[in-house]
Amino acid sequence: MAGIRTAGGGPGGPRPPKAVEGTARALDERFGTTGFARKSLRKAFPDQWSFLVGEIAMYSFVVVLLTGVFLTFFFKPSMQEVIYDGSYTQLQGVAMSEAYASTLDISFDVRGGLLVRQIHHWSTLIFMASILVHMLRNFFTGAYRKPRELNWLIGILMFMLVMLNGLFGYSLPDDLLSGTGLRILEGVLASLPLVGSYAVMFLFGGEYPGTAIIPRLYVIHILLIPGLLAALIPLHAIVLTWRQTHTQFPGKGSSNRTVRGYPFFPVFIAKTTSMFLWVIGVTVLMAALFQINPVWLYGPYDPGAISSGSQPDWYMGWLEGALRIMPAWEITAWGHTVPLSVLVPALVVPGLLFTGLAVYPFVERWVTGDHQIHHLLDRPRDVPSRTAIGVAGVVFFGTLWLAGANDVIAERFHISLFATTWFFRVLIILGPVVGYAVAYRICLGLQRRDLGLVQHGLETGIIRRSPDGGYGEVERPLPDEAVAPITDPRPAPAAVLEVPRPIDGVESPRARRVTTRVRAALNRRFRTDLAVVPERHPDGEHANGEHADKEHGEALDGGDRSVSVRKGGG
């Protein structure tokens, strides 16, 4: 019958064109695309704002690639000396490298060049920030647990690659600020025992600064690292995520086996397209309104000059801070000098940080004995130990980041540079400890608040006097949507691990192992103060045994919600 379409384009509806139908059949016969597409279109995506942070990173990467391609048309990665004769009159007649001269041409002579340069720089900063926030969300919610350990490791690798590529990228213009950063990189490489001088010669193609460093960084910046990221991002964001059940927060209708959300098509595809447009729009707006990296103000790089208050981009600031607050320690032995003041902050600190992030999922699994598959996320307050560890790491990172601007802080607030340096030296030790303790106590307070809301409900501010003369506040139970994240069952984040008890007075050989006792102690510490799922009382009755007051309930919200009375003093 005309005008009636059936699912799949059957006899009751119009058939697709032969070319389209033939192409779809050929792809399906070779790659099985039909079944994959049908399953993908039905895949459910939870509706939670924090899941979109990873998409901001992915779309920022797209913007970085597109603007980077534009810039390659005009940038000249050469350190050959030229005399500048472009539009910027302040530097006309000054000798500089072709790399710096072409950067000035992009900024002042290429139509739209400055805007694209700033879009490229801002999108890189947004890319790095969104990756960091995405990693923090995964850590605090336990999203790295089985079966997503590989995704966690890929994310850390991408974070390191993007940070390294950002360093190489802002070094390409060969201005005074970027040259200062390269000088620091050269000093770090030269401080390596035994192989330091060889590493400098290999990277710079001779003695610093040489003439090969800019072309080499250019190849790494536009080919090697972007190629690796172009392979890792789809693997991290699409392939592994698509093959696994999407994570979600606990709540009504959500469990470790079911996903509550909207289908990929048409809901999620509309949301993610809107997010893509928002990322582009915000980045272009920032690039148009807020100046960043004005290389023409710094001038060409001169190994004998340095500007006051030089600061790297924010994602490199923590390494700068580590270098600034490290005491001038060094070890001299067997004719060799090991400068700890450079090696510790530039190699040991980032090595411990990234290695700790990489092995943490496996260390936590060893401590907790948890080998379950987790598709349901933890609320940070429900696992105080993990949340406190994460906050301690954030305080450590933030302290180093602030220390990278100790000279600016001293100048702006008229404080001694010596005092600010020692302040950050003390804070880097005490700050994480205080952060751990404060975060732990906040988690416990939020747990008790949740328990009180489930047992008693929301305070209404209405005081009622009972027949016996006592006073109590009228309380309203929480709606099911608000109670479900607190009371619904979820997989336990840790199992009970104890030291084996003696049998007939004979101690088990396993109990005598130091690792067994350490594991049991850490397990007890991790399980301490884990959130306990409270018993959910029927609507209209609470833990105090009193029934709801229907009359007051109708007065408060139209009769669709019952309330209870919490007794106070008589």
Explain how this protein is built:
The chain is mostly helical and 570 residues long. It is built from 19 helices and nine strands. A three-stranded antiparallel sheet has the order 7-8-9, with no helix packed on it. A two-stranded antiparallel ribbon has the order 1-4. Strands 2-3 form a two-stranded antiparallel ribbon. It is globular and about 95 Å long. The termini are far apart.
Question: Would you spell out the secondary-structure blueprint of this structure?
Answer:
Elements: H1 18-31, H2 33-42, E1 44-45, H3 53-72, E2 81-83, E3 95-97, H4 98-108, H5 113-141, H6 149-169, H7 176-190, H8 196-204, H9 213-243, E4 262-263, H10 264-289, H11 295-298, H12 314-325, E5 331-333, E6 336-338, H13 340-368, H14 384-403, H15 406-412, H16 417-456, E7 458-465, E8 471-476, H17 480-487, H18 514-527, H19 550-557, E9 564-567
Helix pairs in contact: 3-5, 3-9, 3-10, 4-5, 5-6, 5-10, 6-9, 6-13, 7-8, 12-13, 12-14, 14-16, 15-16
